[in-house]
Design a protein that fits this description.
The protein is α/β, with parallel strands linked by helices. Helix content is 49%, strand content 13%. It has a six-stranded parallel sheet with strand order 2-1-3-4-5-6, with helices on both faces. α4 links the parallel β3 and β4. The chain is elongated. The N terminus is likely disordered.
């Protein structure tokens, strides 16, 4: 992490995000030099308060439960409890905490694992401090963030053909979408001009192929896969 100076108006707006107090930060990284250096850089910014540091995943969870920080900066690999699993547990027990992963690798599986665990951002350790602050700015503003160097990872993930929905037939995708939009079996049958029994068969095939256990789970999947939107 390069300690570039963050100056001018940019420094002034990092980051209370409407808070009337410093942003409370827990920092978890198994590399002591990295951890201490980053804690020092953050502490130089008046808007940050580092309330805990650790190099251990289980201690990371304990610090977050105890302090309820606004932000967790975590490394994806730590002893005791790996960073991804620690983040998953923090997301469950401290849902108000925003989480930004600091990693040495930009491999697609690592990036995906971090976001699947509940992270709101992912930055590479070789970034500058100013780049890190951009990431913090984004996640504290209820947005998601990845290092600019990882744009190709997102494009590859978007374009890849290993989405579970690819196992569905066009008709099954259509039925899945209609269920996710809230239509009943009868309404879907009428919409598609097929029998209710046929709709039911499609439904069972969809649930089995996607390995989900009901319409509620199917709806969540459809939202993630972009089959339906929450927009009016």
């Amino acid at each position: 992490m390069q300690g570039n100076h963050v100056g001018g108006h940019r420094a002034d707006r990092i980051l209370s995000q409407g808070m009337d107090r410093p942003v409370r930060v827990v920092l978890a990284d198994d590399q002591e030099l990295m951890r201490e250096g980053l804690a020092a850089l953050l502490s130089q910014q008046e808007r940050f308060e580092v309330v805990g540091t650790t190099g251990d995943g289980r201690d990371c969870l304990r610090l977050c439960v105890d302090h309820k920080p606004d932000l967790l900066l975590f490394n994806d690999s730590m002893p005791g409890l790996n960073g991804i699993e620690a983040a998953r547990r923090v997301a469950s027990r401290c849902p108000q905490t925003r989480m930004l992963c600091l990693s040495e690798t930009g491999d697609r599986p690592c990036v995906r694992a971090a976001f699947d665990a509940g992270a709101h951002g992912y930055v590479l350790k070789r970034c500058t401090f100013a780049n890190l602050v951009d990431g913090i700015d984004s996640v504290l503003s209820s947005r998601y963030h990845v290092s600019p160097e990882l744009a190709h990872v997102l494009v590859e993930a978007f374009c890849r053909d290993d989405d579970p929905a690819s196992v569905l037939t066009p008709r099954e995708k259509e039925v899945a979408q209609l269920y996710a939009e809230g239509l009943s079996t009868r309404q879907i049958a009428e919409r598609l001009h097929i029998s209710m029994k046929t709709v039911g068969t499609h439904r069972e095939h969809i649930l089995a192929k996607l390995e989900v256990d009901g319409i509620a789970s199917l709806t969540r999947y459809a939202l993630r896969a972009g089959l339906v939107s929450l927009d009016p």
